[in-house]
Automatic annotation (TrEMBL):
<feature type="domain" description="Glycoside hydrolase family 20 catalytic">
    <location>
        <begin position="561"/>
        <end position="604"/>
    </location>
</feature>
<dbReference type="InterPro" id="IPR015882">
    <property type="entry name" value="HEX_bac_N"/>
</dbReference>
<dbReference type="GO" id="GO:0005764">
    <property type="term" value="C:lysosome"/>
</dbReference>
<dbReference type="InterPro" id="IPR029018">
    <property type="entry name" value="Hex-like_dom2"/>
</dbReference>
<dbReference type="GO" id="GO:0030203">
    <property type="term" value="P:glycosaminoglycan metabolic process"/>
</dbReference>
<keyword id="KW-0326">Glycosidase</keyword>
<dbReference type="Pfam" id="PF00728">
    <property type="entry name" value="Glyco_hydro_20"/>
</dbReference>
<dbReference type="GO" id="GO:0006689">
    <property type="term" value="P:ganglioside catabolic process"/>
</dbReference>
<dbReference type="GO" id="GO:0005975">
    <property type="term" value="P:carbohydrate metabolic process"/>
</dbReference>
<protein>
    <recommendedName>
        <fullName>beta-N-acetylhexosaminidase</fullName>
        <ecNumber>3.2.1.52</ecNumber>
    </recommendedName>
</protein>
<dbReference type="GO" id="GO:0004563">
    <property type="term" value="F:beta-N-acetylhexosaminidase activity"/>
</dbReference>
<dbReference type="InterPro" id="IPR017853">
    <property type="entry name" value="GH"/>
</dbReference>
<feature type="domain" description="Glycoside hydrolase family 20 catalytic">
    <location>
        <begin position="165"/>
        <end position="422"/>
    </location>
</feature>
<dbReference type="InterPro" id="IPR015883">
    <property type="entry name" value="Glyco_hydro_20_cat"/>
</dbReference>
<dbReference type="Pfam" id="PF02838">
    <property type="entry name" value="Glyco_hydro_20b"/>
</dbReference>
<dbReference type="GO" id="GO:0016020">
    <property type="term" value="C:membrane"/>
</dbReference>
<comment type="similarity">
    <text>Belongs to the glycosyl hydrolase 20 family.</text>
</comment>
Length: 818
C-alpha cells in the first residue's frame, strides 16, 4: 500500500512550513533580530568608567533615552555609572548621534525608526536620522551586553536596522478587569524593549468604562466600581509612552459593546420607551445597541470625543465597531423605517451610516478613524484603517478595495497558544500556497468533517488529499466559510490514517483522522492548540466515486496582493482581552511571547527558524526580568506560594513546568460549562486563583521532550537518558504536589492534574526501561497505553497534562521496530 510518513514522531509537533533559505544569522541573543548583523572578534568593555556623549540633535526625550540606558546598564551589571556624561566624542564609550529632530511634534505612522549600531576599538556609536531610531537602538545595545570572568562587554559588531512594518502595536483590555497604572507602565517599558510602537488602550466595553469624563460622569461612576483612570493619570501614561517612542490610541466602542453606556444612559440605546439595563458582569455579546436615529447620540459622542481627543494627541482614534448584535435595530419599527427612508442596505448599512457621521466628527477634530472588521463598508472613505480580528481574508480583501489594514488575528495573547503558532503568522496575506487542482493521472479523496465546541455550535469543513502520479500527496481544507488553506501532511496512509496540520485564523489545528471505510473512525480527533476535539465525518467525493469532483472552496481563496496593495498592510497588533486575566496574571500572558510576535513585525520576513526563536526568547525572557523588572515570573511564584499555603512551593513550580493551560478558547468554554446553569462562572466574579492561572502559556520542558524523542528516533541513544531525567523530575514533582494541591480550596480541583501526570510519567518510564533493555512493547500494551494517554489528554481544571504529547510519541516509537 502506498504510504507517506514525513515522521511518525512528529505526532503533535508543530512543524513550520516556511523556508529558511536566505534567513539572517541569529548568532546573538537579540529579539527582535536586526535586519543586518556583522559580528566580529573583539569586544568593548562596559565598566564603571562608561561614558556617554550626545551628538547632534538634543531634547528632553533624548536626555531621557540616555538616562534610561544608563539606569538599565546598572541593573544588568550592578556596576555604578558615576559621572557618565562627557563633553566630547573622543572621551565617550558611547556616542548617541541623532541627525535631526522628528518631522512632527506628535509621532506618526511614518516616523523614521532606523538606526545603525557600531561597536569597535573600544567605542560604541549609535546613529539615527531621528530620535525614534536611537530609542530603538538602545534596546539592541542593552540586549548585547554580556559577561565573562573578566568583566562586562558588548561584542564588536556592526548593525543596520529598520522595521519591516510601521505599525507594531499591542491592544490591552483594561475594561473587563482593571489594570493598575504601574502595571501598564511596566508593559510600556517591555513594549519599548521589543521595539513595539503603539499602545491601543481598550478602556470602554460592556463591563466598565474606565476613563474619567466630565460631560457624562455616570459613565465611569456607575460602571467602574471606583477603578478608573483619571485624566491626569491618562496624561501621565501618554507622556510616559511618548518618551519610549510609543503612540497611544484610545478605543471608544460603538455602536455595540455598549452595555456600560446603556446602564448609565439608557436613553441612548435602541430598546424603545422605558428601557433600562443592569450593570453587565458577564462575558459575551449583548443586546444594547446605540440608536443612530437619535440626535442625542451625536451630542453625546461629540462631547465624549472632545474630552478624549484632548487626552490623546495621536492622529488615530479607534471606534471599535465589532460584534454588533442587531436585534434591537431589527425589532424596532422606527429604526427599520429610518433605514428604508435613507435607502440604506439594512442593519449593516445603518452602522455604516453611523460610522460615516462619526468619521466626519473625528475628521473635524483632526483624527483618522480606525475600527474592527465590521466597520468596513463601501460608503466609508479609504482613509479609515481596518483592524482585523477575522483574519487574512478580511484584511486582504479590504486591501484589494484600497483600505489600509492591520492584523490582530493570530496574535490574541489572552488565548494560551504555542508561541510557534504566533511566530508563523505573518501580517501579509500570501495567497494560496498549495496546488488545489486535479491534474491528469492524479487521484483525490474529500472528507467532510465536523467537530463540536463546548460553547456555540459545531465547526464543519472539508479536507481534500490529492495523490500525484509519483505517489506524492498534498492536502487542503475548507472550513467555516474561511478561504482554502493548505494542510501540511505529517502522515498519510490512504484509507487508513491521516495526520496533518495547518494554522487556522485563530489557532494551531492538527488533524488526527482514522478511516473506517468511507467514515471517520471513532478515535478521530482534531488538536486545537493542545486540546483534543472528537471529529466525525465521511467521504463525500473522490476518484472512486463516479462523476465526483473536488468541491469548490466555500470561502474562496486567500487574497494575493500586488506590490502596491501590500503597502496598505501597515503591520499588526497583539490583542489581549481581559476575561481571564487581571493585574496579577496579565504579564504571564504577554511575556515572553510578545517578543516573538514583535520579531514578526520588525525583522526580515525570511527569519522563520523556530528553534532559534525559542532559544533566543528564553535568553530574552531572563534579560527582561533583570533589565526591565518584568514581573511575570515573580507574580506566578506569588500565586504558587499562595496555593502552597506555607508548604514547600518547589513541587508546584516543578509540576508547572510540565503543565499547560488548555489552549485557544477552551478555558473560556470550560468556565461556561462548569455549572448546571451554563455561564454562571463566565463573568467578572469568577476567581483567577487556580493552579492554571499561574502557569506559563506553554511548557518549554515538554518542547524539549518532544525534541528528545525525535533525536532518539534518529539514532541518538543519549537522548533517551535525558528524556528519562524529565520523567523522573515530573513524577517526583507530581507526587509531592498532590497533597499540597489537596490542602487548599483554590487548588483541590487540580489534584487530578497531579494524578494524571503521575500516570503518564510512569508510562514513559516503563517504555524507556524496555527500550534501554531492547525489549519490545506488545501491541496489547501499546493499545492500553494509548487509551490511558487519551484519557489523560482531557482538560482537567482548565489545564492540560502536557507530557502526554511526548509520551504518545514514545509509544509510537516503541512500536517502530527500532
Amino acid at each position: 500500500m502506498k504510504k507517506t510518513i514525513l515522521s511518525a514522531l512528529v505526532l503533535g509537533a508543530m512543524l513550520s512550513p516556511a523556508v529558511n533559505a536566505g534567513a539572517p544569522n541569529t548568532d546573538l541573543n537579540l529579539m527582535p533580530y536586526p535586519h543586518s548583523v556583522e559580528l566580529r572578534d573583539g569586544k568593548v568593555e562596559i565598566d564603571g568608567d562608561f561614558k556617554v556623549f550626545i551628538k547632534g540633535y538634543q531634547s528632553e526625550r533624548v536626555a531621557f533615552t540616555a538616562k534610561r540606558l544608563l539606569k538599565r546598564l546598572e541593573r544588568q551589571t550592578g556596576v555604578p555609572m558615576l559621572n557618565p556624561y562627557v563633553d566630547s566624542e573622543a572621551k565617550a564609550t558611547l556616542v548617541i548621534d541623532i541627525d535631526q529632530a522628528p518631522k512632527t511634534a506628535v509621532q506618526t505612522v511614518e516616523a523614521d525608526e532606523s538606526y545603525t549600531l557600531t561597536a569597535k576599538n573600544g567605542k560604541i556609536v549609535l546613529a539615527s536620522e531621528r530620535p525614534y531610531g536611537a530609542i530603538r537602538g538602545i534596546e539592541t545595545l542593552l540586549q548585547l551586553v554580556e559577561t565573562d570572568s573578566t568583566g562586562y562587554f558588548v561584542p564588536e559588531v556592526t548593525i543596520e536596522d529598520t522595521p519591516r512594518f510601521p505599525w507594531r502595536g499591542v491592544s490591552y483590555d483594561t475594561s473587563r478587569h482593571f489594570v493598575e497604572i504601574d502595571v501598564i507602565k511596566r508593559q510600556l517599558d517591555a513594549m519599548a524593549s521589543a521595539k513595539m510602537n503603539i499602545f491601543h488602550w481598550h478602556i470602554w466595553d460592556d463591563q466598565a468604562i474606565r476613563i474619567q469624563l466630565d460631560s457624562y460622569p455616570k459613565l465611569w461612576q456607575m460602571t467602574s466600581d471606583g477603578d478608573y483612570y483619571t485624566k491626569d493619570e491618562i496624561r501621565g501614561v501618554v507622556e510616559y509612552a511618548r518618551n519610549l517612542g510609543i503612540r497611544v490610541i484610545p478605543e471608544i466602542s460603538l455602536p455595540g459593546h455598549a452595555s456600560a453606556v446603556a446602564h448609565a444612559y439608557p436613553e441612548l440605546m435602541s430598546g424603545g420607551e422605558g428601557q433600562s439595563y443592569p450593570h453587565q458582569r458577564e462575558w459575551g455579546v449583548f443586546v444594547p445597541l446605540m440608536d443612530p436615529t437619535n440626535p442625542e447620540l451625536y451630542t453625546f459622542l461629540g462631547k465624549v470625543f472632545d474630552e478624549v481627543v484632548e487626552l490623546f494627541p495621536d492622529e488615530y482614534f479607534h471606534i471599535g465597531g465589532d460584534e454588533p448584535n442587531y436585534a434591537q435595530w431589527t425589532d424596532s419599527e422606527e429604526i427599520q423605517a429610518y433605514i428604508k427612508e435613507k435607502g440604506l442596505d439594512g442593519n449593516h448599512g445603518l452602522q455604516s451610516y453611523l460610522n460615516s457621521r462619526v468619521e466626519k466628527m473625528l475628521d473635524e477634530r483632526g483624527k483618522k478613524m480606525i475600527g474592527w472588521d465590521e466597520i468596513w463598508h463601501k460608503d466609508l472613505p479609504t482613509s479609515i484603517v481596518i483592524q482585523s480580528w477575522r483574519g487574512h481574508d478580511s484584511i486582504g480583501r479590504a486591501a484589494k478595495e484600497g483600505y489600509q489594514g492591520i492584523l490582530s488575528t493570530g496574535y490574541y495573547l489572552d488565548q494560551p497558544q504555542p508561541t510557534s503558532y504566533h511566530y508563523r503568522n505573518d501580517p501579509m496575506p500570501t495567497g494560496i500556497t498549495v496546488d488545489d487542482k486535479l491534474h491528469a493521472g492524479e487521484t483525490f479523496a474529500t472528507y467532510e468533517w465536523q467537530k463540536p465546541r463546548t460553547k456555540g455550535g459545531p465547526r464543519k469543513g472539508l479536507i481534500t488529499i490529492i495523490e500525484d502520479t509519483d505517489g506524492n500527496f498534498r492536502a487542503f481544507t475548507d472550513y467555516n466559510g474561511k478561504s482554502r488553506e493548505e494542510v501540511y501532511i505529517l502522515e498519510y496512509v490512504p484509507g487508513k490514517v491521516f495526520r496533518g496540520h495547518f494554522d487556522n485564523f485563530m489557532s494551531y489545528t492538527e488533524f488526527n483522522l482514522a478511516f473506517d471505510g468511507g467514515e471517520l473512525a471513532g478515535n478521530s480527533y482534531q488538536l486545537i492548540g493542545n486540546v483534543r476535539w472528537p471529529t466525525t465525518g465521511k467521504l463525500i467525493a473522490g476518484t472512486e466515486i463516479d462523476d465526483s469532483v473536488i468541491p469548490e472552496p466555500n470561502g474562496g481563496y486567500p487574497a494575493d496582493l500586488t506590490e502596491e496593495e501590500q503597502k496598505l498592510i501597515l503591520g499588526g497588533e497583539i490583542t489581549a482581552w481581559a476575561e481571564n486575566y487581571d493585574s496579577m496574571t496579565v504579564e504571564n500572558r504577554l511575556w515572553p511571547r510578545s517578543y516573538a510576535i514583535a520579531e514578526r513585525f520588525w525583522s526580515p520576513v525570511e527569519l522563520t527558524d523556530e528553534d532559534s526563536m525559542y532559544k533566543r526568547m528564553a535568553a530574552i525572557d531572563n534579560w527582561s526580568e533583570i533589565s526591565l523588572g518584568l514581573q511575570h515570573h515573580n507574580k506566578a511564584m506569588m500565586m504558587y506560594k499562595r496555593l502552597a499555603n506555607g508548604q514547600d512551593v518547589q513541587p508546584l513550580v516543578a509540576l508547572a513546568e510540565y503543565t499547560e493551560p488548555a489552549q485557544y478558547y477552551a478555558r473560556n468554554w470550560e468556565k461556561w460549562i462548569q455549572t448546571p446553569n451554563h455561564g454562571d462562572l463566565y463573568n467578572q466574579y469568577e476567581r483567577l486563583n487556580r493552579f492554571v492561572d499561574a502557569l506559563p502559556v506553554e511548557s518549554h520542558a515538554v518542547y524539549d521532550m518532544v525534541k528528545l524523542v525525535n533525536q532518539y528516533a534518529e539514532g541518538d541513544s543519549e537522548a533517551l537518558e535525558a528524556l528519562k531525567g524529565h520523567y523522573e523530575t515530573v513524577l517526583q514533582a507530581a507526587q509531592q504536589a498532590k497533597p499540597i494541591l489537596a490542602a487548599n480550596v483554590a487548588s483541590v480541583d487540580s489534584v487530578v492534574i497531579a494524578e494524571k501526570t503521575i500516570e503518564v510519567a510512569e508510562i514513559g518510564l516503563t517504555i524507556i526501561a524496555k527500550l534501554e533493555q531492547n525489549q519490545s512493547v506488545s501491541e496489547k500494551e501499546r493499545s492500553e497505553y494509548l487509551v490511558k494517554l487519551n484519557d489523560a489528554a482531557k482538560i482537567y481544571d482548565e489545564a492540560i497534562v502536557a507530557i502526554v504529547k511526548p509520551t504518545e510519541m514514545l509509544v509510537v516509537q516503541s512500536n517502530s521496530g527500532k
